[in-house]
Structure prediction request, 405 residues.
Amino acid sequence: MINPPINSSKILQDVCYEIRGSIANHALELEKQGYEIISLNIGNPGLFGFRTPETMRLAMIANLDHAEPYCDRKGIFPAREAVVMQQQNRGVSDLSVEEVFIGNGVSELIDMSLRALLNPGDEILVPSPDYPLWSAATVLNGGKAVYYRCASDNGFLPDLDQLESVITSKTKAIVVINPNNPSGAVYNQKTLEAIVELVERHNLVLLSDEIYDQMVYDDAEFIPMATLAKNCVCLTFSGLSKIYRACGYRVGWAVFSGDIERASHYMQGMTKLSALRLCSNVPGQWAVQTALGGIQSIKSLVQPGGRLYNSRQAVIDNAAASKYLHLERPLGAMYAFLRLDERFNGKLDDYAFARDLLENHHVLIAPGSSFNTPYNDHFRITTLPDTDTIDIVFDRIEECLGQHS
Prediction:
C-alpha cells in the first residue's frame, strides 16, 4: 500500500511571492548548470557590493558577550530607545520604548501586526502594485487583501476617490508603502494627509511601511506618516535592511504612535506574539543604536554622484533610449517598475517575457503582475547594480524584445 502524499495547507494556494518564486527557482537551476545569471529580482544590497557601515559591525562585535541570552521580548533597550529618539527627532512625540517592537526584519513584524489585528474575514486595503508580502500575510492571517489603485498615469500615487470607495464595514486598516516598492513613488504631503483623514474618519488602523525612508532622489521629500497621524492608531515599520545595507542582520522595528490609548489591546496582542517567539535576533540589535545615531551614509549614496543615484540614472537613461519600454521615473527606493510598449499587448505578457529573458538572455526580473496588479505589462528590476551592468541588462532586454516586436 502506497501512502498518500502529505499536502501543504490549502491557505497557501492564495499566497503569491514570485520575487523568490518559480522563475527565481529556475534561475537557480540554470546557475547550477553553469550559466551566469544577472539577478535583478530582489533588493539585496550586499549582493551588489554595498557594505554595512563599519561602525555597525564593530558595535555588534563589541557586544557579542551580551548577545548570548534571550533579550526582552520586545527587543533590547538601547535599540528601542534609539528608535524612539529617531521618531522624536522627526516630530513624533509622546513615545516610549514600550511602543517599540524589534523583530527579525520588517517581514516578521508585518506578519505579527496582522496576526494581532485580524479576525477571519477582515479586510486590509493594500496598494496596487504592492509589496506582495503584505497581501500574503493578510491571507495567511485570515484576512482579505482589497486593493486601491496607484496607476502610472498618476505617478503611481493612490487614487484617493477609489481608495475611499473600497472601504467597507469589514475594513480594518490601510497599508501605505512610502517610498514605494515596486514603483519608486514618493508620496507628497497632500496625498498622505488625505489618507490620514480617511483613516481617522473611518476609525481604521494605519500601517505605514517606511523601510526605504531615507532613500529618496532629486527633489523628492520623505514625510513620516506618524507626524501626520495624530488622532488614529499608526504603526510605522522600518529597519536596517535597506538604508543600512544590512539585510542579513534581520533587524526591523514597528512603532505605535497616535492614539496609543485606543491601541492598548492591539499592543497587548503584539506583546503576546513577541513573547511566543521569545525574542528577535540579538546580535543585530546591537547595531541599531549606532546606525540611527551615527552619520547617515545613505545620504551620499542617493545624491548626484553617489552610487545609488548613478545606477538609478542609468536605468532612467536606458529606459528613455529604449524602443520598447516606458518608465515612470522612480523618486525613491531601489527599484524601477518598467512597462512594455503597447505593441506587445496581447502578444507578450510579463511572465512570458520574464521566462524568455531568463532562459535565453540570462537576466532575472520580477513580473509586474506578481505585485498584485490588474495588468500584466510591467516588470520590476532593482537599481542596485553598477552602471556597466545596467547597460548590459538593457542591451539584453532590447535584444529580447526586438525578437518579439
The longest strand covers residues 171-177. The chain has two domains: 10-50+300-404, 69-293.
